[in-house]
């Protein structure tokens, strides 16, 4: 199993910037685990018993309404701390988290996390930054669903959110892996699977994007930005 002390992917999550003593404590109280694609970390309504530091792989966060409708809220990338809000509020999970691809995680139970936060101020700062990032992601979700008035605008906004920060230069082409089905994309954009399929086909015809397998490339981000305002 990978060790936090010699991990090649450090500096990407809330606990990667800990000093040596705090990092050794984290290593001693956490356990490493692998989750295959499709595995469920926890379900909405479950009591929170641990947090999962997503070291590699991606996971989807979804919620279910009282009417039984499922909505995918976001895709968690490496560095995300799954279950943090529920842990700190001593409540139940508000979302269901499922692995989109094989994931490597560090698991920390409630008692160990609370002890680490009490012992090491830098760990508390890391948690504060992680919660701030969650808050910003929440704003992005509201913006994606609430501001564009057209289905095409919502799909364009989602693609831009996925590629944000990945371009090396202004208006450069950006490629991302898109492991979601059209049904799942529809869930993230408050539209139907058929509409998502038609919209992506339109974007391809207009040379705004290209799709090869699960790889999606945004060819004209400025054009998508204009669509996202509609």
Strand order of the largest sheet: 1-8-3-6
The CATH H-level homologous superfamily of the largest domain: Jelly Rolls
Average of pLDDT: 87
- Name the overall outline: elongated
| Helicity range | 40-55%
Structural class: alpha+beta
State the end-to-end distance. Answer: 48 Å
The largest pleated sheet is described as: 4 strands, antiparallel
* Rg estimate, integer Å: 19 Å
Low-confidence stretches: none
- Proportion in β-strands: 15-25%
CATH topology of the largest domain: Jelly Rolls
Number of domains: 2
Number of strands: 11
CATH architecture of the largest domain: Sandwich
Question: What's the gist of this structure?
Answer:
The chain is 40% helix and 23% strand. The protein is of the alpha+beta class and 230 residues long. It has 2 domains: 4-145, Jelly Rolls; 148-228, Orthogonal Bundle (Arc Repressor Mutant, subunit A), CATH 1.10.10.10.
């Amino acid at each position: 199993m990978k060790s936090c002390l010699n991990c090649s992917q450090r500096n990407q999550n809330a606990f990667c910037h800990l000093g040596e003593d705090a990092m050794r404590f984290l290593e001693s109280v956490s356990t490493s685990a692998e989750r295959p694609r499709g595995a469920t970390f926890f379900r909405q309504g479950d009591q929170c018993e641990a947090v999962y530091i997503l070291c590699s792989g991606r996971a989807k966060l979804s919620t279910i309404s009282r009417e039984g409708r499922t909505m995918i809220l976001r895709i968690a990338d490496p560095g995300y701390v799954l279950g943090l809000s529920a842990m700190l509020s001593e409540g139940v999970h508000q979302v269901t988290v499922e692995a989109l691809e094989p994931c490597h995680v560090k698991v920390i139970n409630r008692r160990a996390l609370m002890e680490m936060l009490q012992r090491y101020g830098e760990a508390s700062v890391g948690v504060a930054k992680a919660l701030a990032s969650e808050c910003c992601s929440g704003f992005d979700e509201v913006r994606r669903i609430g501001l564009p008035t057209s289905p095409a605008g919502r799909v364009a906004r989602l693609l831009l959110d996925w590629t944000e920060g990945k371009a090396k230069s202004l208006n450069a082409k950006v490629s991302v892996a898109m492991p979601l089905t059209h049904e799942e994309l529809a869930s993230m954009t408050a539209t139907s699977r058929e509409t998502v399929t038609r919209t992506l086909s339109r974007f391809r015809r207009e040379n705004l994007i290209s799709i090869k397998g699960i790889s999606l490339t945004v060819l004209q981000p400025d054009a998508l930005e204009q669509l996202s305002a509609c």
